[in-house]
Amino acid sequence: MPLDQQSAARADRDSLFHPFTSVADHLRDGPTVMAEGRGVRLKDLEGREYLNGMAGLWCVNLGYGRREITEAIAGQSAKLSFFHAFNSMSSEVVIRCAQELLARAPVPMARVFFGASGSDANETQLKLIWYYNNLLGRPKKKKIISRWNAYHGSGVMTASLTGLPGMHTLFDLPMGPVLHVTCPHHYRKSPAGMSEREFSRHLARELQELIEREGPDTIAAFFAEPVMGAGGLIPPPEGYFEAIVPILRKYDVLLVVDEVISGFGRLGTYWGSQRFKIEPDLLTSAKGVTSGYFPMSACFVAPKIWQVIAAESNRAGLFGHGYTYSAHPVGAAAALATLKIIDEESVVANVAKLGPVLQQEMRSAVADHPWVGEVRGAGFMLGIELVQDKVSGAPFPKEQLVGDGCCASSSTGVSSRERSAIRWCLRHPWCSSARSLMRS
Ligand SMILES: Cc1ncc(COP(=O)(O)O)c(C=O)c1O
Fold first, then answer.
1. Could you tell me if the CB of 117 is within 6 A of ligand 1?
2. Which ligand 1 atom minimizes the distance to the CA of 259?
3. Under CATH, to which class is 32-61+346-439 assigned?
4. Cβ(261) to ligand 1 under 6 A?
5. How much distance in Å is there from the Cα of 209 to the middle of ligand 1?
6. Who has the most CB within 10 Å: 31, 252, 311, 331?
7. What's the CATH code, domain 70-344?
8. Which residue from 431, 415, 440 is spatially nearest to 43, judged by alpha carbons?
9. Which atom of ligand 1 is nearest to the CA of 122?
10. What b/e string do you get for 413-422 counting C-beta neighbours within 10 Å, with b at 16 or more?
11. Domain boundaries, given as residue ranges, for the chain
12. Among candidate residues 224, 233, 282, the one with its CA nearest the CA of residue 106
């Protein structure tokens, strides 16, 4: 028998340990229990409707109820519901998926390594970087640079790379050879009076000084999201990657572009790397690869790294890394159906067209509000910085939970998310038409 709201809430409180949730708040307030989704709309158990302002968790990019994807999943489950890829095992659907992904890479890539989540994919990237430098006989070149406010996942090493203190405190993190540099948020972090371009050069100098201080022979890689997501929806300041990348190249530091949320069109280009004209050595994707219908991630590996791994393989022996669900055939079927829809429905062009409309409309609607310090974003990523004082930019005290008030609630009817009670983030599913965009 289906549960009603009350018994579902009670059973949830008594049984579920929720990720990224305050246990105290949850025990007091209970869950919002979602019941169904269709397109960009969600309905909870009590029949209340929401606009899915978060595209699930940055993943249901094509909206709910896409029969092409659910049928591909059902068909593959019936035909070959699982096989692994260890010890040279493979399946046709997985091979086709790898080919289709490589064909869409922003720069020529040599291989795709599959996993089940953004976190496991970034853990794979980290291990690949260390493996590569060991094969090259550079045992000291292991340190990884990340940015404050970055989000790269919740594994031990990926949470260490993540620059959010809430994910470090009480978990004994960060761990390992991780260094954090300043978050590239012009509004909050720039010294007074600097233009965005000057701020970018300032951050490039900081990076260069760090590499020289630590020793270039110890620095292996730099991780970056094209637009920072979970850490506050922060597009790079003007000229940022232009200033940063030559320094990485100069010191032979690999660039890992984390496209877990920006891949597959969110920024109006197939990849964020294309929007910001960056050439990743390693690219991480997940979420949108199956539009959230099946857990799957894909790491792209550039030829220069693959060639070393292939050339040294006899000496190195077995590549001792992988997951049971690396190369899951059902995930591959879901991904193939997703990629087909993205192509056939010109989804990326749609975001390129509607993204500026979303940004402009939101600016006109809220920028003058006394609580709004900054409206920022790119494509279908949009963030509003809530401030107590518009002139000084002073944030609200965390305890006031102002951001919470703007989040998933029956009063706004918009499912969204705040960070640190000061930001309100929207990442629209991009199946939207101009009409549904305006209504929202
Ligand atoms: C940029 C980025 N990288 C990695 C991850 C981790 O992905 P997952 O939650 O699938 O492990 C996320 C999740 O939101 C993300 O936004």
1. yes
2. 1
3. alpha beta
4. yes
5. 29
6. 331
7. 3.40.640.10
8. 415
9. 4
10. ebbbbbbbbb
11. 32-61+346-439, 70-344
12. 282
